[in-house]
Design a protein that fits this description.
Length: about 150
C-alpha cells in the first residue's frame, strides 16, 4: 500500500496536477505546493495517425505504468494479453470508441469521465472484454480471439 509523499503516514487520495506526486490531505498539499516541481508531459499519441495501431512501437507497458501510480496492479504478462486479442484490436478500429478513450484519458476527473463513458454500450463492451482477458489470464487466449 502506498503512503503520502509528503507526510508518509496516510494512504494518498489525491495527486498534484503539476508534478503528479500523491498526497493525503489539504494540509499535505499546502506543504507540498511551496516545493512543487512541475513535470513536463510528452505530447500525446494519436492512434488515428497510424491507422488502427493502439500504441506506437517504441512505447511499452512499462512506459505507461508508474510504480507509485497503481494500487491494484495487473501482472505485466496479463496486460500483454490485451495486445494479443484480435477482438480488442477490431474494437479499437472503431473511431467512436477511440474518441471515448481519448476523452477519458484527457479528462481532469477520470472518475466522472469513466461514468459518462460507461453509458455507451460500445465502451462497456470494450471494458468487459478487457476485464475478461486480464481476469482469466492465460485462459483468455483461445484460437477464436488470437
Amino acid at each position: 500500500m502506498q503512503l503520502c509523499s509528503v507526510c508518509s503516514e496516510q494512504t494518498p487520495k489525491y495527486r498534484c496536477p503539476a508534478c503528479e506526486i500523491r498526497y493525503c490531505s489539504l494540509g499535505c498539499y499546502k506543504k507540498h505546493k511551496d516545493t512543487c516541481l512541475p513535470v513536463v508531459k510528452p505530447s500525446s499519441y494519436n492512434p488515428e495517425d497510424a491507422g488502427c495501431s493502439v500504441l506506437p512501437e517504441e512505447c511499452s507497458v512499462e512506459d505507461l505504468l508508474h510504480e507509485d501510480d497503481i494500487i491494484d496492479k495487473v501482472p505485466l504478462q496479463r496486460l500483454q494479453l490485451l495486445g494479443q486479442s484480435k477482438e480488442l484490436r477490431d474494437l479499437l478500429c472503431n473511431p467512436h470508441l477511440r474518441r471515448l478513450l481519448r476523452t477519458v484519458d484527457g479528462a481532469q476527473t477520470k472518475d466522472d469521465a469513466m461514468k459518462a463513458a460507461m453509458q455507451e454500450p460500445l465502451f462497456v463492451e470494450f471494458s468487459d472484454r478487457c476485464l475478461k482477458i486480464v481476469e482469466n489470464g492465460a485462459t483468455a487466449l483461445t484460437p477464436s480471439n488470437i
